[in-house]
Design brief:
With 525 residues, the protein is α/β, with parallel strands linked by helices. Helix content is 37%, strand content 19%. It has a six-stranded mixed sheet with strand order 10-15-14-13-11-12. Strands 18-23-22-21-19-20 form a six-stranded mixed sheet, with helices on both faces.
């Protein structure tokens, strides 16, 4: 245990710092402070020694130089058990500083609001990280506080231990500092790496020269994709959105595969504005439905697509779960359900399925670019692939056949098209009336995906006649069109771009089918 006698406080985020400093002062801690923080503490009635009085050197260079002084860093870095350190400190009038309370200039917030390069540069903190790292390095003697959420626990321990803090606490605080400064430096590096070397004349780079990102562990998982693999679930530091921000209300612990499927279900359910339901199995939807008549109807449509595959599936919903929906969900074996809320009576019904995992995303709706503004990362041996997220929707639709498309058919085509990018390639979606009829996924040839989608529809007893078909990539031959026409499909949406486009369009015209080109592909590997 080490007693805290002297602290330096210099914070950008001033949340609760006045109350914290008051309590420290009441415990006999001498407080040194800088600039705006010192002014705030004085107004709150906290005895404060201004930094310039303590060092004998003024704050200068528009606040760039405040704490970079031997009396500050010597007081932080001096090892108390080292007689030579103590002798040197005494010789130069350096008193020990036992606590450093610092958080950093808001660089990340500054660049997030689209600041200029000059403003971004001015919001790179120098003195703060230097003090934090020094204190964290000497955590055996110094408590370092970077997060206001730690104030209460620190005060509680100090009050219970006569103004002292344990080595365990100081080490935990030091680890948080290095995690914080690593994230902070990564943000600066990523930002500057995306700025061209001549920003006044050249546009920003699409990707930074180096890319560093930090994640914090949310939980260890029972195992990975298979029982012999270990795994853990992480959230991007400071941004617990999507599945990482969801609250588990009941059920067994999440597995690695559960998380992958839940993410897929959440992404797909969030595509639609009408009440919608999706059922995911092995990272592919086996059914999707949307209905103006409510969530229960949407779920019925999704479930009817492939009742066999729905067994043991993951359900994603884009509306709060009500009792009538809960009754349907409880009628079969499911692994998990994710939705933006569950009514109390729905929770009561689902509580009978004790192992069923229920996840509540709260009010958040993952919509369009605001949800997936970051990069997608995929590891390969010795490296990593980084890409922007596939969230774009085709807007330049072109009817390339003689047959025109009416509004209801167009709605079905767009519904099927929105599902395409969530299905493993090669992907074929057959849809009608706001619901999937058949899904063919992950095949090495597109004709096999079409064949599987038709088989699935037949096995489910669903009528393909009058349905539409979406393909995530172009048709290399006319065989897909011929097969679709033979089964009564009336319209197709696909990217186009094949050297066989003319042949494919001709086939559609021969069958009296309508076809739209999107000019956009949606491969998912």
């Amino acid at each position: 245990m080490k007693k805290v006698r002297r602290a330096i406080i210099s914070v950008t985020d001033k949340t609760g710092v006045d109350a914290f400093a008051k309590e420290l002062s009441s415990l006999g801690v001498e407080i040194i402070s800088t600039g705006g923080t010192a002014d705030l503490l004085k107004r709150a009635g906290v005895p404060v020694i201004p930094i310039q009085s303590y060092t004998g050197f003024p704050e200068m260079l528009d606040g760039r130089l405040k704490t970079l002084h031997p009396k500050i860093h010597g007081g932080i870095l001096g090892i108390r058990e080292n007689p030579e350190h103590i002798k040197e400190m005494e010789a130069h009038g350096i008193r020990p500083i036992d606590m450093v309370v610092v958080n950093l200039y808001a660089f990340e917030k500054t660049i997030a609001k689209g600041a200029s390069l000059e403003e971004a540069i001015e919001n790179i903190d120098i003195g703060g990280p230097t003090m934090l790292r020094a204190a964290a390095k000497n955590h055996n003697d110094v408590a370092v506080v970077v997060d206001p959420s730690d104030y209460a626990n620190i005060l509680s321990e100090m009050k219970n231990c006569k103004g002292m803090l344990s080595k365990k606490t100081r080490f935990a605080l030091a680890k948080k500092v290095f995690q914080t400064t690593a994230r902070y430096d990564a943000a600066i590096s990523n930002y500057l790496g995306s700025v061209s070397d001549a920003p006044e004349i050249d546009p920003p780079k699409n990707f930074p020269d180096t890319y560093t990102v930090q994640f914090e562990k949310l939980q260890d998982l029972r195992y990975g994709e298979n029982p012999h693999q270990s795994a853990a679930f992480y959230a991007k530091t400071g941004a617990k959105t999507g599945l990482a921000g969801a609250k588990q209300l009941q059920g067994k612990e999440l597995s690695y595969n559960n998380i992958l499927d839940l993410d897929s279900a959440l992404r797909l359910a969030s595509e639609f504005t009408e009440p919608s339901a999706v059922i995911v199995k092995h990272n592919n939807p086996c059914g999707a439905g949307t209905s103006k008549n409510g969530l229960a109807r949407a779920y019925d449509l999704a479930y009817a697509t492939d009742k066999t595959s729905a067994f043991g599936g993951i359900v994603g919903l884009n509306r709060k779960v009500t009792a009538d929906v809960a009754e349907k969900l409880s009628s079969i074996f499911l692994e998990a359900v994710i939705a933006p809320g569950f009514e109390d009576n729905a929770l009561k019904i689902l509580s009978t399925k004790k192992n069923l995992r229920l996840l509540d995303t709260g009010k958040e709706k993952l919509q369009a670019k605001t949800a997936y503004a970051d990069y997608e990362l995929k590891r390969v041996i010795g490296g990593m692939l980084i890409q922007s997220v596939d969230i774009e929707s085709a807007t330049d639709l072109k009817t390339v056949t003689k047959t025109a498309i009416n509004e209801s058919v167009l709605e079905d085509l767009l519904f099927a098209w929105n599902i395409c990018r969530h299905v493993k390639s090669n992907a074929i979606i057959i849809a009608k009336g706001g619901r999937t009829i058949g899904i063919g996924a992950g095949q090495m040839s597109r004709i096999d995906s079409t064949r599987i989608a038709l088989i699935k529809a037949k096995d489910a007893g669903l009528d393909v006649k009058g349905a539409v078909l979406a393909s995530d990539a172009f048709f290399p031959f006319r065989d897909n069109v011929d097969m679709a026409a033979e089964n009564g499909i009336t319209a197709i949406i696909q990217p186009g771009g094949s050297i066989k486009d003319e042949e494919v369009i001709k086939a559609a015209d021969e069958h009296g089918m309508a076809m739209i080109f999107t000019g956009m592909r949606h491969f998912k590997h």
